[in-house]
Write a structure and sequence with these properties.
This protein is about 15% helix and about 35% strand. With about 190 residues, the chain is an alpha+beta fold. The protein has two domains: about 30 residues; about 120 residues, Immunoglobulin-like (Sandwich). The strands form two sheets. It has a six-stranded mixed sheet with strand order 1-8-5-4-2-11, with no helix packed on it. Strands 3-10-9-6-7 form a five-stranded antiparallel sheet, with no helix packed on it. The chain is elongated, with a radius of gyration of 25 Å.
Length: about 190
């Protein structure tokens, strides 16, 4: 009789074990907790920036600079990142390049790594604390792509059809959990 009882318990225990393993596997995939200990540093130069180590050719004395020389990158707006769900610091700049295109530049970024992080250009106001965690996908926003790294300097091209006057902030956004890791208000000037 003991033998019959064991055979009924084993299939039940096997199903519990299968469900538990599947649950742990799904949880690991969804949360990706190992990313909290993995840093990815990106060091991109600003497109079109002049390398100061290369001296320009000297113009003949009395000659005016060439009017056809393109202007270098110009910072149109900028702001400091504040922390939301995770400690985040650095500077965000909206930069107009010499060809008229725009990039959002993250400088000295330092935040946590996480699953499905993106850079959002948004119309939402930047709010301190938990009040600012979930607002950046509520209104008008544009994803500029996946975050290239959680540390360093990096550039994100702004699509040409984006009306920049409509957007006032940038967020490091976790798309998987709909939460801001950090954000900056873009201030003109």
């Amino acid at each position: 009789m003991e033998r019959g009882r064991r055979s009924r318990v084993r299939p039940w225990m096997a199903w519990v074990l299968v469900v538990a393993v599947a649950g742990v596997g799904f949880g690991l995939y969804w949360f990706q907790p190992w990313k909290l200990w993995q840093d990815e540093t990106v060091q991109e130069a600003l497109p079109g920036a002049v390398d100061v180590t290369e001296a320009p050719a000297a113009a003949p004395s009395g000659a005016a600079p060439s009017p056809s020389a393109p202007a270098g990158p110009v910072t149109v707006a900028s702001g400091a990142l504040i922390s939301h769900e995770h400690a985040t610091s650095g500077t965000v700049k909206l930069v107009r390049l010499a060809d008229g295109s725009h990039v959002v530049r993250l400088e000295n970024l330092d935040t946590s790594n996480g699953p499905d992080l993106r850079v959002l250009l948004a119309d939402a106001p930047v709010k301190e604390g938990q009040a600012g965690w979930h607002v950046f996908d509520d209104g008008d926003h544009v994803s500029l792509g996946k975050l290239k790294g959680n540390k360093g300097n990096q550039n994100y091209a702004v699509p040409e059809d984006v009306n920049l006057a409509r957007y006032s902030s940038v967020s490091i956004w976790c798309d998987r959990f709909d939460v801001s890791f950090g954000a900056a208000e873009l201030v003109q000037g």
